[in-house]
Write a structure and sequence with these properties.
144 residues; alpha+beta; 60s Ribosomal Protein L30, Chain: A; 4-stranded mixed sheet; 3-stranded antiparallel sheet; 7 strands; 28% helix
Length: 144
């Protein structure tokens, strides 16, 4: 996620080509979690680092972190795992200096699979990995 700002236009995320404004949803696909784990892999949180930078520039910015899993495992287990992953991303941002009250977390488990790899479908690891993601929804933002 690379963010560019211009005086003539609303701030935009170049990587996602969306405005940085209330209601915008950014998909952070490069936060890597190991299969069946919720800790963020070391060195695999560049997009969270960039999000922290934007949140530091926009002191009023509030977000929701929404984590998803692949379809392997039980529905309840995946729901709990996604909640832990969202909390892990929140903790990462807190450690970067972002106040906890600016971040809400949600886990959707395997309920919003983005490809054909639903439960019982045989898929390659890369296809399953596509479903393991964290989305960021901007819920409040004012000018910097």
């Amino acid at each position: 996620m690379s963010v560019e700002f211009s005086l003539q236009e609303e701030p935009r995320s170049e990587a996602f080509d969306v405005p940085i404004q209330q209601g915008t949803v950014l998909i952070l696909e490069n936060i890597y979690y190991d299969f069946d784990a919720f800790s963020i892999q070391e060195g695999a949180a560049k997009e969270l680092d960039e999000l922290a930078t934007v949140m530091q520039q926009y002191a009023s910015m509030q977000i929701e972190l929404i984590a998803h899993t692949d379809s392997r495992g039980t529905t309840i287990y995946n729901l709990e795992l996604s909640q832990k992953r969202a909390q892990s991303a929140k903790q990462y941002l807190i450690e970067k200096g972002i106040s906890h009250d600016r971040i809400q977390t949600f886990g959707f488990g395997e309920s919003k699979i983005r490809n054909h790899c639903s439960e019982g479908i045989n898929c390659a690891e890369e296809e399953h990995a596509f479903n393991r993601r964290t989305e960021v929804r901007i819920t409040k933002i004012d000018a910097p």
